[in-house]
Prior knowledge:
The protein contains one helix and 33 strands. It has one helix spanning about 305-310; strands at about 20-25, 35-40, 50-55, 55-60, 65, 70-75, 85-95, 105-110, 115, 120-125, 130-135, 135-140, 145-150, 155-160, 165-175, 185, 190-195, 195-200, 205, 210-220, 230-235, 255-260, 265, 270, 275-280, 285, 290, 300-305, 315-320, 335-340, 355-360, 365-370, 395. The strands form twelve sheets. The chain has a four-stranded antiparallel sheet, with no helix packed on it. A four-stranded antiparallel sheet has the order 8-11-14-15, with no helix packed on it.
Amino acid sequence: MLALGAVAFVPTTNNDINTSITTHIEDLSGAGPVDGLINLNVTAVNELLLLSTTGSVNSAPGLDSWDASTIFGFDPDDNGLGSNTNGMFSELFDLDLFASNASVDALHFVSQDISVGTGSGINLLAGDGLFSVSADITLTNSDLTTLDVKKEDVVIFRPDVAGDYSTGSFSLLFSNPSGNNIESITLAEEETLVGDIVIQAGSFLFTEGSTSIYIFTPDDLSISSSNGNVERLIDGGEESLYGDGNDIFPDNIIGIELVENEYTIAGTTLQAGTLLITTDGNGNVSLSDTQSGKRQDIYALNLTQTTLGSGSTDGSVSLFFDGSNVSLNNNSASLNAISFVESQTVANTAPTGNVVVTGNLTEDQILTADTSEINDSDGLGSLVISGSGMEPSLVVQQ
């Protein structure tokens, strides 16, 4: 009899179909056990946008229902954003599997490995979920240990199996130094210019139930979960430059996402540094222009200056997601958390040009290496030129 060591099943990319595999084993005489059945239930993570709502929703495209404990994905159709918002929803994560009466309050999906904080740092992995909750709860890990979480905490959820968010473990990432609730959060996974302020990689933008957006730059979080520096990036209570006498944000910000690089999604191109936000009301968002919307919508802010950098905030605003087009049309369907799934990391481009070496290629002669023709749109790192017998006799010109 031959022993079969292992069988590998590799689904197609972006597969979202549940699969059943029947196993049949027999020896040379035809005898064997009853056929087995393996059911593979797929949790799709190819949705481009993750969302949560403040309450229960029934009968939306692709998903019969969900509640405030659910993180669900939205996969837009081609050109299915802005005023033409259209697409399908599907469930990714249900916090009720790990706690009673849980409600997601803020959300960020980590799209690339990154270390947060100084000292030893906290290592986040691609696929980790960061979130806050609307009320103090106790979360149960897959090994049945527990974690007590407060409204001012940001928690890491790491699935036991990559892509399967039905089991996993929780750990504390940081706590709001002010002690106020964390209403929305986004992690800068790369250094990003927002208006006139550079947001450092590993820093967070967050809100705490007001019209202001803050930066939290963590220090050594092993000393204290709130160890770090907080600055106000945008004072949304400023009168907008649109000239209508209204504040920039008449309603509180309860969802935020940072776009680190120019990013095209469903036919809509977002510039690097764009902020996506949701609010808890139906007032217009105004900068140099104004955009009407509701609490089920997402606005895109393309800033030219901020309160922190220039003393006032300005830029342009547009509608990124229209919830009414996809059955989000009552108060319980208000969006309160948003995050992209895909990394917005720019693909690396190869350098161009060559090193030009001049001089006599003989012993005891000085050679000059001219690197001025070398260019790299990603930025040049250190140039290292080596060779036998070169020691101090090479001059590099940049």
